[in-house]
Write a structure and sequence with these properties.
The chain is α/β, with parallel strands linked by helices. It has 2 domains: 180 residues, Rossmann fold; 86 residues, Putative mannosyl-3-phosphoglycerate phosphatase, domain 2 (Threonyl-tRNA Synthetase, Chain A, domain 2, 2-Layer Sandwich). The chain is built from 9 helices and 13 strands. A 9-stranded mixed beta sheet has the order 5-6-4-3-2-1-11-12-13, with helices on both faces. It has a 4-stranded antiparallel beta sheet with strand order 7-8-10-9, with helices on one face. Strand 11, helix 8 and strand 12 form a beta-alpha-beta unit. Helix 3 crosses helix 6. The longest helix is centred in the last third of the chain and has 18 residues. The model has no long low-confidence stretch (mean pLDDT 94).
């Protein structure tokens, strides 16, 4: 008989949210991770990280669900995960991939043009050495190379005092692109964001839940502005504290819960409070 229990879908940011912003550890979130497994809920990793970075983490977490890379640049869905085909998917290895973002080569060209037109120094990951990326991110040398293997999103260091955000935004928009802000970097990208990708994935989960005669409950957890579109797509949006104990003031949406705790501490505490009530 089909289950009548709602299916719980949890979409989470990684750096500064599930993962500690400095150590990249999820140890503080182990209780909630165990609760998620016990409930047979689906935990979806939604990050500005690349596929090369996220796959080892999925193995450590024993996570076999779809995941979203590079600020919604693409969705990676394990083959045969859903009992129906879905639009615009292309096979790639063990996945069906839905690409939403702009090719990386175009982003690199546009970044150079924007820096030249505005007379400011914009350095993306493609301009930095592995040593510089490691120093900026705190990643180990072995972890740094996967972080630079980008396909849909360019993290950028803006090295110009007083450069108006409106000028940067306008320069991107004239090229059909846009900016967002993560925990450490600005990101230049196309028409994708975490919300666009999350809504597509949620629709497929809703379709499967309807076939099973179940309701779907969605939860989203993040820490910064690039998570806002994802948080706006879910029933229960949660914002964790930044390392300095503050909340990102630019993240505002209806029914937002502000977790009591930084990063994975707040992640764990908020889910341990919420999950028993669903």
């Amino acid at each position: 008989m089909p289950s009548t229990k709602p299916h719980i879908l949890i979409l989470t940011d990684l750096d500064g949210t599930l993962l500690d912003a400095t150590t990249y550890s999820y140890e503080a979130a182990t209780d909630a991770l165990s609760a998620i497994r016990a409930l047979d809920a689906s935990l979806i990793l939604v990050s500005s990280k690349t596929r090369s970075e996220m796959e080892p983490l999925r193995l450590r977490l024993d996570n076999r669900h779809p995941f979203i890379v590079e600020n919604g640049g693409a969705l990676f869905i394990p083959k045969a995960y859903f009992p129906f085909p879905f639009e615009q998917a292309a096979p790639r290895g063990d996945y069906e991939v839905v690409e939403i973002g702009t090719p990386y080569a175009r982003l690199r060209t546009a970044l150079k043009e924007i820096g030249r037109d505005l007379g400011c120094r914009l350095r993306g990951f493609g301009d930095l050495s592995l040593e510089e990326v490691s120093a900026l991110t705190g990643l180990s040398p072995a972890e740094t190379l996967p972080a630079t293997q980008r396909e849909y999103d360019e993290p950028v260091v803006v090295e110009s005092n007083g450069m108006a955000w409106s000028r940067l935004s306008a320069a991107a928009e004239t090229r059909g692109l846009r900016w967002t802000r993560g925990g450490r970097f600005y990101h230049l990208m196309g028409e994708n964001d975490k919300g666009v990708a999350s809504r597509r994935l949620i629709a497929w989960y809703e379709r499967r839940a309807q076939q099973e005669g179940r309701a779907l409950i969605t939860v989203g957890i993040g820490d910064s502005l690039n998570d806002l579109p994802m948080l706006e797509a879910v029933n229960y949006p949660i914002l964790v504290r930044n390392p300095d104990g503050s909340y990102d003031p630019d993240v505002q949406c209806p029914h937002l819960t502000r977790a009591e705790g930084v990063g994975p501490v707040g992640w764990n505490r908020s889910l341990m409070d919420l999950l028993p009530t669903l």
